[in-house]
Amino acid sequence: MNHLNTAPSRRRFLAVAAGLGATAAVGTSGVAAAAPGPRRLRVATFNIHHGAGPADVLNLERVARVIQDLRVDVVGLQEVDRFWKRSGFVDQPAWLAERLGMHHAFGANLDVDPEEPGRPRRQYGTAVLSRGPIRSWTNTHLPLVPGHEQRGLLQATLEVRGSCLDFAVTHLQHDDNKERERQAARIVELLGSSPERTVLVGDLNATPETPEIGILTGALDDVWPRVGSGDGFTYDALNPHARIDFHLASRDLRPLTAQVVTADPEASDHLPVVSDLEMPVRRHRR
Predict the structure, then answer these.
(1) Which first-to-last residue range defines the signal peptide (predicted)?
(2) pLDDT for 100-114, tens place per residue?
(3) Can you list the positions of beta strands (E) in 161-239?
(4) Quick check: pTM over 0.85?
(5) Most buried residue, 8, 83, 153, 195, by CB count within 10 Å?
């Protein structure tokens, strides 16, 4: 388990602290009660193709603008680089977090030698960007067929308006359905067969009717069929023909909206998906 110290500016910290202070009150029983009513949570998934669009032109600022316009509490990213020559040796999750004023966690599924002497090791994987603090995170490698790309599950515990949420992001193997089935089964083991206050997002490289998606939806609800409109196609960005980018939520969360965002289809080779969910309020004894 990893713990982060990626606090934003003092102004943002004070604003968050003030907001949290306004959401709870302690009664005479010693129970800290959250503000009345459930909390609304806005989440997204986005495969950023290491910051390059369909024409393979690098523009991480363009990706940042897309994420900024989503106005999310948390986003899960796939195909994220750290210190690769193709992406200008930038630490992409750290750069995006700084640019957007968010906290971040990164899960390295590839970790290889640097391309130039004196450079840091190259890493590639998934990331979480969160408006609220990331209390802890862990990245677990998923089942792998020899010779294929290592995949992982990045899990983060977030603070969202005074409540905790378990948020996970993954990117499954693109060309082996049996491997994806094993990866999906391992994800259910990690998240639990009946999780609570949990959201899983990612590029699953599979369409809704496949067995691997069925394994995941045995434990989590696919948000799109419940509140999305239309086919939900996310790939490829310029000619969308498949729904392979998913939001899956535990059954105590109520989906409100879901949308494929098409405002800038040349920011990546995938389109982002954004959804609004309603979280139940918990009461915690001191």
Answers:
(1) 1-34
(2) 999 999 999 999 999
(3) 163-171, 198-203, 221-222
(4) yes
(5) 153
